[in-house]
Write a structure and sequence with these properties.
The complex is a heterotrimer of chains A (95), B (486) and C (484). Chain A is of the alpha+beta class and 95 residues long. Chain A has helices at 5-14, 21-38, 73-77, and strands spanning 62-63, 83-84, 87-91. Helix content of chain A is 35%, strand content 9%. Chain A starts with a helix and ends with a strand. Chain C has three domains: 3-287, no CATH class; 297-411, no CATH class; 419-483, Arc Repressor Mutant, subunit A, CATH 1.10.10.410. Helices cover 42% and strands 19% of the residues of chain C. Chain C has helices spanning 39-42, 53-65, 163-180, 220-239, 285-293, 299-308, 314-321, 324-337, 340-358, 369-380, 386-397, 404-411, 419-432, 434-442, 445-462, 469-483, and strands at residues 3-14, 51-52, 73-74, 77-80, 90-93, 103-108, 114-126, 130-136, 139-143, 150-156, 192-202, 212-215, 247-252, 257-260, 273-274, 281-282. In chain C, strand 6 (103-108) and strand 7 (114-126) form a beta hairpin. Chain C is elongated, with a radius of gyration of 30 Å. Classes of the chains: A alpha+beta (95), B alpha/beta (486), C alpha+beta (484).
């Protein structure tokens, strides 16, 4: 499945990675070769094989519905780039 | 003191030959003196280390010392450590001080160990050479021209250089075993789910696993006992008792059935590496083991499957680094999209971006079935290969890496770099444990023997590795560091 | 041309768990910003989710309530997109294997007829935080307290054909989740939110028209209004030769219109994949059976029982079973007074009137079900008459006494049924009203019936309202007729 320049730009946009044209060209080359390597998978017949999401066939354990966390806003916001009145600030979101 | 194993240091502390403070001070001084060319540490936490050492000494004076009390070690900078910079080797987290402790960190502290600091690593654990760190490459103590392997390259180099007797690493596709092999130390990747991932910054959640890196299998056994176990905060950690990994180390290997995967001795394997590995296997035969060839027929699909699954998970795991709540944020963002795009473009390095792009692309509409689903199916086939093999043999053995440590800058092409992990990657896909044991040298650089067991066979792997280390002294060889030889 | 409207609803219900779906942080509403956002909710590096048992149980209870299939295995997936109120850059949801399979909800329309609306599935997911757009120097503030609150998203089939049906469906869901106690159903606080898919097609056409999705329509009334506007817009558009575009629209209740959300219109690709931090949820049959055995009586069953066992009219049964709070109140009154019909009249009459006047919910009623029950009991056993009962109710409402009996006693409202005492009062009134007695006597016999009202009023007044009106009537008639 050949990769095109537009695919790289699209992935970069979906992943919110700023990429200029020349960087995109550079990645196109790398990613193309990685996908070529990955494409070996297409040659394998997996008819009837169930996908494996986790290496162990374990099932989800459930947590009791208890409030165990206390307010740590001050600690958590110490590593935040921009806060005011306890809120994280971002450039205005247009609804 | 820097030449001793953890087990020896523990005995010295217990006998009162030296205090934890003395030991800690001596190693801190050694790091100060010798780490500059190696670049194995990102952060040295001298103050906290000395405080922890004093607490350990006080505990010992009160008769409250456990087997690991007062023993120094280092943590890969992927483990969140409360109040300490936790960078994951990335500019993205250069200013991030973790507000909480990873479970592994908590457990090691509870066992009384003394962390000397945070070791260098490939950014977000993506790499096989430790050349992808924002903090610069780590160099191999055996040869400064060589890479230490990755992604736990800082941990491996620090242990090999005698800066610290043990360090914690993480292994998603070989990131403990391959650097352990390149640096001539012992490194264990436990079964997926054996050690909690809570607080370990995620690369690929269904593959990541933490484990010990040290000078001997016995040391790894002590450390694994301290960090293993069920964690209520990690849904994927396994509720299963933790055996005494030290207890069984001395069991004889008579009758041990060793399988040699045909596919691990094929094209691309360095002659020197093969010779050292074959020699090691002869040693096992002399210890009473029997050897036979087995096949893992889907081996060559492991790297393609991994490079779908790991980047896909990573692309999602790394979305939280958006410049809003923590981490790097670009200057004066024009709008929200600019904030995201520039913060992430500036904060992530090239290899991380490459994997995010690959993962994003393969998960996209129209590609999901062909890539991700197919890779998951192949993952099942790969696991089945191992399960079938373990029906016939107790353990599998082979090289940890096709070559000894390569030179810095030697692998410019990402695909050829990825192919280096051919012997380690399938193990993560299958979730089984694996250990690297030093097994000689090729061209002056260490060679690692990889031993694989079935799920939860850590005790057996440690026993098998320990017996080899009772019969050989490869694990005791030390590089001659520049300043020491001068 | 005749047009048919086709509507499907996606209802997001916040589940009434104490802690979040994947963390131990509180879900309480109204806390200071970000004080209930723990490390997991913030998506700090290295944190991991652990699933809340109560969220699972509540989802299953809902499934049982709509007679849905409960699959043995359900799986969480990640829905990937960037938004500041979504801390991890993905929402943990269930795309491919939801916890609740196909089921159905019965709705009752205004004419009393019923209709079954099929539910496609319901899945668990985590709520996002909130963006606050007040001016922070041109910035938006993010509060992540709500992030990680468990949501059950209930997706209907496009089975509704009018705004009224859609509103009735939403009410039925509201009634069900509050009956089950799995949500407080508070739409004003966002505990229940609704996305509406609307399309139109020429009557008789098989294929669906192109639909528009109206986001966040958060009251029963708005659902009707938004659909009404949207249907009209689409019909006009088509009749003018235009075409409906598949898009997301926002309902503006002030302008009473829906508007295209063009700013968010870029093509999304959510890249769903199974969440590697969570394992498949496996529900064994015993667990599901246990939940089924412990389900409360649900609205439909309750309505049927009110009709068949209590003899209420279909209308009364519908009103009184519409919410769990209403039904519980009514049954409380009925149990104390022992008369379902009287209890129904009082709850729907005096009580509902008072609640409506003061804008109170039934749970906030100052008169408890036990108090009202005792009052109704005194009406039933004729201790007081209807007029006095209203006085007692007002006294209870205003807290002038703890019980109906105490108020009756204190105010001397006990009904006088002693005919001797009543006769004394009647004789007094007749003596005091010679003119009216004369008029009565002179009137044609068939007009006298109306004229007796004056005398009844005077006697009741003399008794301060406590005389038994039927007795007064009867005795007055006898005495006046004897004078003719």
């Amino acid at each position: 499945m050949a990769l095109e320049h537009a695919d790289v730009l699209r992935a970069a946009h979906l992943a919110r990675l700023g990429l200029d044209e020349s960087e995109a060209a550079h990645y196109l080359d790398d990613l193309g070769r990685i996908l070529e390597m990955v494409d070996q998978l297409q040659g394998l017949d997996t008819e009837g094989v169930a996908p494996l999401a986790h290496p162990l066939d374990a099932t989800q354990r459930l947590r009791a519905d208890e409030v165990t966390e206390t307010d740590q806003r001050e600690t958590f916001q110490r590593c935040a780039p921009a806060v005011e009145n306890g809120l994280y600030l971002v450039p205005r979101v247009v609804e | 003191m820097h030449d001793k194993t953890l087990t020896e240091l523990a005995a010295g502390l217990a006998a009162g030959e030296f205090s934890s403070r003395e030991l800690t001070q001596s190693l801190l001084a050694r790091i100060e003196r010798l780490d500059e060319p190696l670049n194995s540490f990102i952060t040295v936490t001298a103050e906290q280390a000395l405080a922890a050492a004093d607490a350990a000494d006080a505990a010992r004076a009160n008769g409250e010392a456990g087997p690991l009390t007062g023993l120094p070690l280092a943590l890969k900078d992927i483990f969140c450590t409360r109040g300490v910079k936790t960078s994951c080797g990335s500019r993205m987290l250069d200013t991030f001080t973790a507000p909480y402790d990873a479970t592994v960190v908590e457990k090691l502290a509870a066992a009384g160990t003394v962390s000397l600091g945070k070791t260098n690593m490939d950014e977000f654990a993506m790499g096989s050479s430790n050349e992808n760190s924002f903090y610069g490459p780590v160099r191999n103590p055996w040869d400064l021209a060589a890479v230490p392997g990755g992604s736990s390259g800082g941990s491996a180099a620090a242990v090999a250089a005698g800066l610290v007797p043990a360090a914690m690493g993480t292994d998603t596709g070989g990131s403990i075993r391959q650097p352990a092999a390149f640096c001539g130390i012992t490194g264990l990747k436990p079964t997926y789910g054996r050690v909690s991932r809570y607080g370990m910054i995620a690369y690929a959640s269904s593959l990541d696993q933490a484990g010990p890196m040290a000078r001997s299998a016995a040391d790894c056994a002590h450390l694994l006992g301290a960090i293993a176990g069920h964690d209520l905060r990690d849904s994927t950690s396994v509720a299963r008792g933790v055996p005494d990994y030290v207890e069984g180390l001395d069991a004889p290997l008579t009758g041990l059935k060793i399988g040699l995967p045909r596919e691990y001795f094929g094209d691309g394997l360095d002659d020197g590496v093969e010779a050292a590995v074959r020699e090691a296997i002869k040693t096992y035969e002399s210890l009473g083991a029997t050897v036979r060839e087995v096949s893992l027929p889907h081996t060559h699909y492991a790297i393609p499957a991994y490079y779908v699954i790991a980047p896909a998970e990573a692309s999602s795991n790394l979305s939280r680094f958006d410049g809003v709540r923590f981490g790097h944020r670009c200057e004066a963002p024009a709008d929200l999209i600019d904030l995201y795009k520039r913060s992430r473009a500036e904060g992530f390095g090239e290899e991380v971006k490459r994997r995010i792009l690959i993962g994003t692309h393969t998960l996209s509409e129209g590609f999901f079935d062909a890539y991700y689903k197919q890779a998951q199916k192949v993952r099942r086939l790969i696991r089945q290969d191992f399960l079938d093999a373990f029906e016939e043999v107790d353990v599998l053995m082979g090289p940890a890496s096709p070559t000894p440590a390569f030179d810095l800058g030697a692998n410019k092409d990402p695909v050829s770099m990825y192919l280096q992990d051919i012997y380690t990657i399938a193990v993560n896909l299958a979730g089984i444990p694996g250990i690297n044991v030093p097994a000689g040298f090729a061209g002056g650089r260490p060679v690692g023997l990889q031993i694989l067991g079935t799920h939860f066979a850590e005790a057996q792997l440690l026993n098998v590795a320990h017996q080899f280390q009772q019969a050989t002294d490869w694990h005791l060889r030390r590089p001659a560091l520049a300043e020491e030889t001068a | 041309m005749q047009w048919e409207t086709v509507i499907g609803l996606e209802v997001h219900v916040q589940l009434a768990t104490r802690s979040k779906i994947f963390s131990g942080a509180s879900t309480a509403f109204g806390a200071e910003p970000n004080t209930q956002a723990c490390a997991v909710d913030l998506g700090l590096p290295g944190v991991l989710p652990v699933l809340n048992e109560a969220a699972v149980a509540m989802a299953v209870q809902f499934g049982l309530g709509i007679h849905a299939e409960i699959p043995e295995v359900s799986v969480f997936d990640r829905k990937n997109y960037f938004y500041p109120d979504l801390p991890k850059g993905y929402q943990t949801s269930q795309m491919y294997q939801p916890i609740v399979g196909p089921g159905e909800v019965e709705i009752t329309l205004e004419d009393g007829s019923t209709k079954r609306i099929r539910v496609h599935h319901a899945h668990l997911e985590e709520d996002a935080g909130k963006s606050l757009h007040e001016d922070f120097h041109g910035m938006t503030g993010i509060d992540l307290n709500r992030a990680g609150t468990p949501l059950l998203e209930i997706v209907s089939e496009p089975d509704m054909r009018s705004a009224k049906e859609a509103a009735a469906y939403l009410k039925a869901i509201h009634s069900l989740v509050t009956y089950l106690g799995i949500s407080d159903g508070n739409m004003a606080e966002g505990s229940m939110r609704c996305d509406v898919n609307v399309s139109v097609r020429p009557a008789g056409q098989e294929t669906f028209g192109t639909r528009a999705e109206i986001k966040n329509v958060n009251s029963f009334r708005f659902v009707e209004r938004a659909i009404a506007f949207e249907v009209e817009r689409q019909i006009e558009l088509i009749e003018d030769g235009g075409e409906v575009v598949q898009e997301t629209r926002l309902f503006d209740p002030e302008a009473d219109e829906t508007r295209s959300m063009r700013t968010k219109e870029e093509a999304n690709d959510y890249r769903y994949f199974p969440c590697p931090d969570l394992l498949p949820v496996v529900l064994d049959q015993a667990y599901v059976d246990h939940l089924r055995d412990n389900l409360p009586e649900l609205p439909a069953e309750k309505r049927a029982r009110f009709e068949s066992e209590l003899g209420l009219s279909a209308y009364d049964a519908g009103v009184l079973s519409a919410s769990r709070a209403m039904a519980e109140y009514f049954e409380g009154v009925k149990d104390v007074c022992g008369d379902a019909k009287l209890a129904a009249n009082w709850v729907q009459g005096e009580l509902s009137g008072a609640l409506n006047r003061e804008g109170l919910a039934i749970v906030d009623s100052p008169v408890s079900a036990a108090q009202l029950g005792e009052l109704v009991a005194r009406v039933k056993d004729e201790t007081i008459n209807g007029k006095a009962a209203k006085q007692v109710f007002q006294a209870l409402w205003h807290g002038e006494g703890d019980s109906a009996d105490a108020i009756i006693e204190a105010k001397g409202l006990k009904q006088v049924t002693d005919s001797g005492a009543i006769e004394v009062m009647i004789d007094q009134v007749i003596n005091d009203s010679p003119a009216q007695v004369a008029q009565y006597r002179d009137a044609e016999p068939d007009k006298r019936g109306k004229m007796i009202g004056y005398f009844v009023g005077q006697v009741m007044k003399a008794s301060r309202g406590t005389a038994n009106p039927q007795q007064v009537n009867k005795l007055l008639k006898e005495k006046l007729d004897a004078l003719c």
